[in-house]
Amino acid sequence: MHQSSHYHSAIAMRKLLISCLLFFGGFISIHSQVYTGAAYYPEHTDKEQVEKDAHLMEEAHFNIARMGDFAWHSMEPKDGVFTLEWLDHAIRTLSQRGIQSLLCTPTAAIPKWMHDAHPDIMIMGADGQRKPYGRRRHACLNNEDYRQYCTRITRTLAERYKDNKSVIGFQIDNELATEEPYCYCPECLKKFQLWLKKKYQTVEALNKAWGTIFWSETLDNFEQVWLPRRMDNPGIYLDYQRFYSDVALEFFRMQRDVVKAVAPGMTVTTNIGGSGFVTTMNLYELADECDVLSFDNYPVNVTLEHLYGNDIGHPFDPAMTSFAMQIIRGGKSRPIWVPEAQIGRTALTQKEIVKEGYPRLWNHQQLAYGCRLSTFFPFRSFDSGHEHLMAGVMESDNVKRSKFYEAQQTAKELQEIYARTGEMLPVTKAVVIRDFQVDWAFENGYTFCPDLKYLREVYKYYHALRSQSIMADVISSQADLTGYSLIVVPYLAIASPDFCKRLEEAARQGATILLTCINGVRDIHLHKTDALITTPLQQLAGIEVKGQEALFGRKSNTLTYGNQTGQCQFWFDQIEVKTAFPTASFSGNYFKGYPAITCNKYGKGIVYYVATVPEQSIVDKLMREAVSNSSIKIPAQCNHPLVEIAGLKDTNGKQYIYIVNFSDKDQTIEFKIPVLNIMTGKKYPVSASVKAMDYLLVQVN
Q1: Which residues are catalytic?
Q2: What are the tens digits of pLDDT across the range 398-413?
């Protein structure tokens, strides 16, 4: 009885605090708290259940609900007829429990009445057939009827909720540029032709860029341009990929600008699907358009391996999740949001089972990378429909089970941490270069080596850094390189002259640089450069590339690196050292005795060159050597692969180390500097133990 009285007193105090905040002009600013909650679908239920759910969310310490992402028919059951009272009720009911709302524009799934009125809204495949109705992301982003409908529903929502203090912002669309990213309809062809005319000005310049002299593809005018398919002329297909990235970005901007015109102060974002591993849109450019960077985080079952059709599965590795977050951040010192956070099984094929306790720790890992909003997907499991297999915080029978209590614990812990630290962002001195232009070039199948999967190989180098507890940004080659002690450039097939100059300057100033094969083999139009790899990179590495060979994935070679021998695949440069010296050599059937890894002194820095695609153990060894020759200092270490260690700094300059132990055993963390536990004040001069499936956040003294 005493506990019940205490609970209701606490609730009453919380409601009083909320009332005071409303009186002084609204809820706590989004800049002064961390949000934890769930994706919620009030259109699936009735008002009574919404009120029960609001109570459950309050009990779970939730303070945010994301709503509306697939509710177009519920919002607009007939053309121009809007029924938003159910959403008004949900926002109001949640607000009374201290829960704010992130609203979504519902444009990722169109209602049937829209399809019936405008069947040409549907995406057209490369075979010339329209996609049938029945899924999401099946409307052409260039279709003018669809765009007008999207603009109208976005404006309707923005005008209705622009002054609602319980609405913190809008998520535009849902998982843009996934599932059906390309369209081959007449409208897309027309817009592609206009896009090309603006870019190239003359058809002569277009022919030169595409190399249309090959296979007699020379064009007489822009009206002859066709929409290329995968395996077509690689220069044409690369421009088509660039075009469709621009189309997706423009579609986002269209809705964003509608919101901003009505409610200039409203925060606007969009959620990147595929756990952040989307290649069909340039996410670095998208980041410049968003108020907040957001992605959906499903660390089990959705990894970068989805890009390459890997249906075997990929055991959870915290480095994979942090890789996604650093891609989304793109080197920017800004917070991120996670509008969909995995709570359990998904609607996809279950390649791995979600271990109890992982969703809680994933949220701690997100916080360690600057996440300020995380909503579990979904709050309640769906009774039916496409995603009826999705696990929720609650199941449809309203019984509180382990997932509810795990979400409750998570929300409580994150809010307590944030109350003590405020905003924290990663501190990095290492960087891995990843370009979407190169993603697209590799995607065409035979541009370089069909079995070499670009992002998978980039990840090897990122993983090697994380295994040493080194934070690394993931940025484009156009980004600023200033301030990085270690710059890793894997397989950057398209390397601009400006990027080469900035690498040279970084090396002169003392940075350690690691280059691999395939770097700089083509220019921006996929034309060959002035040498087998562009001359500035050869000079930087102190080598000359004499020959290049590719090999399909079922065969491999070996290299010997000190006392270690490992496999290497896909691509082999035959190099001659100039000012560099070899540190590893090929030792298998191919190119025996040729250098496989070299090291060169350049200015105050050191430049490594890797002439092939090595296995992870070789990459790990190489990155340990590269780190030892850089100025990077590692404040804390643990050798277990399931322990995440992140270095952070708050807005006042205080430094923290966030440790998340995903393993089922206690782990010892070795500190190079004295630290103290921010929750207990306990000091750790040398080491600390982190319990199994738990976290530790320490402040650097």
Answers
A1: 175, 340
A2: 899 999 999 999 999 9
